Amino acid sequence: MIVLCAITQLSLLQMIFVLALCFSIVDILLFRAIYRAFPAQDGSIFEFIKEYKTSPALGFLGVFMMLGMLGHFWITWFSSSDSVTILGLFKYGPHYDFPAIVAFFSTVPASIYFITIFETDFSEKYQRYFYLLGHSGSVESVDAAREDMIESIRKGIRKLSLIQLLTCLLFITVGGKLLAIMNIGMTETMLDSFRMFCVGYSLYFIANTLVLLHLYFVNEKKIALLSAMFAILTTVAAFVSAKYLPNTYGLGFAVICGVLVIIAAIKLVNYLNRLEYNVFTQQFSVTGKDKKMKQRTKANKQMIRYAAAACGLCLFLMIGSAGAMISQGIKSANILTFTPAKSGAVLLNSPGMGLAPWADSEETQAIPSKLVYVELKWSDWEPVEGVYDVDFVNEQFNLEFYRKNGRDVVFRFICDDPAEEEHIDIPLWLYEMIDGDGTMYNIDYGYGFSPNYTNPVFIEKHAEAIAALGEYFGSDDFFMYVELGSLGHWGEWHVNYEKGIQRMPEYAIRKDYIQPYIDAFPHAQFLIRYPLVDAVDYGFGLYNDMTGDYDETDYWLEQMKGGIWEQTELPEQAICVDTWKTHPIGGEFASTHENQYFMVSDFDLTLESITESHQSFIGPKIIIDESDEDYSKAMEKILKTIGYRYYVDSVTIDMNNKETISISCSMGNDGIAPIYRNYNIKLMLSNEDGTEVWTSDEINFDLRNVLPGEVKAFSCEVEKANLEGTKYTLSISVCDRNGNAVVPLALENEVENMCYQIAEFQIG
């Protein structure tokens, strides 16, 4: 059959039909062999149906044990997003079925031992015990036979478990390495599943052996009930794993099998400890010619028949998927799976993440960052009422240079910047207009002026100033992140109220400061300093200006659980624990410690605080000292940790269809945050001459939904008629709306700027 499929040009449907026919022939031959071994007394091969009333539990037992062993396949096919439909009729899971089936072969050595040695030896001891018990054997001979039978069970279970354990370890270690180096499309995720299934099927085989031993002693109904619970629990575990825990394939099955082993072992030990009592209370027949003994003999034969029938049923149900999988193996060139090599390098020039140094520093132009930080004082923006100094902003912060070089801006507007000398940071004309409504201060932070943020004139003029900013800088996404400043010292939404400075305004007033930003910068993403109701209501991200200070960061994270905000003494802190999943988290290094603390002596705490915050960028205060090796290594670790790190987990190319090639691509994220701007995935096929012969249309896949530790897939199709040549290279890039590759991936084989080779294959 295999040779026939290999040397002929059969379609997939034809190959499945051939496989089904061959399996049917094998089933007929097996049933013929069973019938010859256990001939019917009345000449009918269906005599066993009449005996169903005698021991119906045996039939259910076989079905339930098979469902427990194979049911997780069917659940996964219909519950997991990774399943594939063949011809609209059959399903299989390319990342699930193959590891599970290969792992099942780990039970073969123990199965051989059970059939040829264990069961044979035990059966002899079992028959001898009950013969002596039923034929008035002496007390000494019966006791000796009982101990001999029990020792046979103990010895058999020990040896069988040892064989299975060694085989399992061999499969996991040596087998896992062989599968990894063989070019058969085994991804790391599939290898993890394979190892888990090795454990699961080992436990299943031991449990199944214990169940079979029970049938020699215990009422079949009790064991059938146990097997039914096993089938139900494995089905539920498979559904939960496929639906909610896609990276834990096989775990639920292994756990349930382990539970079955424990329960079956306990029940068997308890029964054997009171063997004579159980035998006589259950009224076992002890006469070989007794009618009940004959019925039990027939029932044991029926067990074989029922088990064979259950196997045949399960085999029939799996023909479609098994056929599809075998056909894939026969024609390995038709479905290819690739695992692109991941890169451990720093992802420089990643949009929306990394370092955001001061834009007005000459050194910043040489720093390989995608972000720059602009902090603008109101007094510099509007020195004369209604006159906005755009030229100053462009020149002071080198905005034209950064725009041309594809770098984005993190922006903050400031009304109060403490300094060493007396000053005000709002325009002088505004100070006079509000009659100095506010507080001149000299505190630990320095000198400055804190306006009365509830003053209606101040609110009105602030809205006009922000609107003007939007008119000049808000028409595109150049200002990528806008940190909602304006309020408090450094625009950080806090004041030193203990020194007599008026507290932060309440939510109703803060709305008048927030809305102008939203109107002015429709393409920006907004961040605020504290996890407040403002963030939840408006969908804002957060920034932590105490990055690296573990205690302060821990306090900031604790605030995300809700509570009283000390700046207003009102319950305005909101639950923002999961904000990072949809909105960016930023911040800058704290000023509470020396740089040595953050980068050397307590670097582990620094990295932990960044990780727990799910931070995407750091700035404007950053710590770079290329002359210090410790500093450089520490910053490299930070840059490898911060933000997102997208990679291609696997690529599957299906060429079975005569008209099209199906490409399925799974992407994962090894970072601590997702990307927050929507970019387009672009796939390209090039022939052996390097000529691009196909480019994907817009792919319906949003990288923003791939959170850290997750892997999600997308697919597309290529018309074979549009291709030229036989050998092809598949590449991937993440592009902006203009089609330019802008997002670096954590992959090797970069063929050009931010474009990566992920597969090579041949048609025909």
Main β sheet profile: 6 strands, parallel
Please give the count of helices: 23
Outline: elongated
Strand content: 15-25%
How many DSSP E strands? Answer: 24
Brief description of this entry?
The chain has 23 helices and 24 strands.
Give your account of this protein's structure:
- There is one protein chain.
- This protein has 764 residues and is of the alpha/beta class.
- Among the domains are: 351-529, TIM Barrel (Alpha-Beta Barrel), CATH 3.20.20; 548-641, no CATH class; 646-762, Immunoglobulin-like (Sandwich).
- It contains 23 helices and 24 strands.
- The strands form 7 sheets. It has a 6-stranded parallel beta sheet. Strands 18, 19, 21, 22, 23 and 24 form a 6-stranded antiparallel beta sheet that branches.
- Helix 6 packs antiparallel against helix 7 and helix 20 (550-559) packs parallel to helix 22.
- The longest helix is centred in the first third of the chain and has 43 residues, at 139-181.
- It is elongated.
- The model is unreliable at 1-10 and 283-333 (pLDDT under 50).
Helix-strand layout with pairing:
Elements: H1 2-7, H2 12-37, H3 47-50, H4 56-79, E1 84-86, E2 90-92, H5 97-104, H6 108-134, H7 139-181, H8 188-214, H9 220-244, H10 251-273, H11 275-281, H12 291-330, E3 335-338, E4 354-355, E5 371-377, H13 378-381, H14 390-396, H15 399-404, E6 408-414, H16 428-433, E7 438-443, E8 446-451, H17 456-473, E9 479-483, H18 507-520, E10 525-528, H19 533-538, E11 541-547, H20 550-559, E12 561-565, E13 570-575, E14 585-589, H21 595-601, H22 603-613, E15 617-618, H23 629-641, E16 646-654, E17 660-669, E18 680-687, E19 692-695, E20 711-719, E21 727-735, E22 741-743, E23 750-752, E24 755-762
Parallel strand pairs: 4-15, 5-6, 6-9, 9-10, 10-11, 11-14
Antiparallel strand pairs: 1-2, 3-16, 7-8, 12-13, 16-17, 17-20, 18-19, 18-21, 21-22, 21-24, 23-24
